[in-house]
Design a protein that fits this description.
single chain, 286 residues, Rossmann fold, 9 helices, globular
Length: 286
């Protein structure tokens, strides 16, 4: 039995990311009495503003957007029962290729070692046995997600504290089934219209979305917490246009998100895989 309280730390790029890929495990482990810490790296200021105003449009005030998204983030963390929310406050870099990538202070343009130091301090403060973040591609190529991965890896290694570190994952094999389910209820899967209309015909090929099943090591049952996850996503109301899964009804949402999957990237426990618990090898078998 560890001498320190069991602690899960999720390192995310923007407000709303905590709910999208880790809302279930945050709610589940918090309910089990495990300490949960969310670290949000950026201010989210490249998100939509009040009324759905988009970045670059008249009336989009990045500072106001950042303030609004902090309020929404706090509300979402309350819904998920997160014990501690930490914000690094780095400037949102926007999507890859946006002018915001090169703005002074943008997270994407920072030196990763410098950017990792406050996170390392937080790891030393909270002493999580388990850290969750994104893979080296930031899951889907977002610059801030990539930087969140980089600083999480640097900070975890420099501190020497986490015994397990995971990347979030969505099983690629299940995406076709999901797309069919969505079509049955009249929802067009994300990106389908663009592909059908040939909008990206001249764009560079992107890696297939989702994680090859062979890479997934860990599947955590969060079926009892999909309602909390959905409510946490809904708390980010200013970003509703961008949170596709809010279109799903409660029943379909529960079926889609009843399991959260991960790739175990760092392990010092020798726990067997596949596993069903992020804390396998850290706490006694239940």
């Amino acid at each position: 039995m560890p001498s320190e309280p069991l602690t899960l730390m999720a390192v995310h790029a923007h407000p709303d990311d905590e709910a999208t890929s880790t809302g279930g495990v945050l709610a589940r482990y918090g309910a089990e009495g495990i300490r949960t810490v969310v670290v949000t790296c950026t201010d989210g200021s490249c998100g939509d503003g009040p009324g759905g105003v988009k970045p670059g449009e008249p009336g989009h005030d990045r500072d106001e957007v950042a303030r609004l998204r902090t309020v929404e983030l706090e509300r979402a963390c309350d819904v998920l029962g997160v014990g501690t929310l930490e914000q690094l406050g780095y400037r949102d870099s926007g999507m890859m290729g946006w002018a915001a990538n090169d703005e002074p202070g943008a997270f994407w343009g920072m030196d990763a070692i410098e950017a990792a130091r406050p996170l390392e301090d937080l790891i030393r403060k909270h002493r999580p046995q388990v850290v969750v973040t994104y893979d080296a591609n930031g899951f889907y190529g977002h610059p801030d997600h990539i930087m969140a991965h980089r600083i999480a890896m640097i900070a975890a290694s420099a501190s020497g504290i986490p015994v397990k570190l995971y990347y979030t994952a969505i099983a690629r094999a299940g995406l076709a089934t999901l797309a069919e389910e969505l079509r049955k209820v009249g929802i067009d899967p994300p990106g389908a219209s663009d592909r059908e209309e040939g909008r990206y015909a001249e764009a560079p090929a992107r890696p297939p979305f989702g994680t090859p099943d062979a890479l997934i090591t860990t599947a955590v049952d969060v079926d009892a917490y999909t309602g909390a996850k959905r409510r946490a996503l809904a708390a980010h109301g200013s970003q509703a246009d961008n949170i596709f899964f809010l279109q799903l009804g409660e029943e379909l949402f529960g079926r889609v998100f009843g399991t959260e999957r991960f790739i175990r990237a760092v392990d010092r426990t020798d726990a067997e895989v596949p596993e069903t618990d992020l804390f396998a090898g850290v706490r006694p078998t239940q």
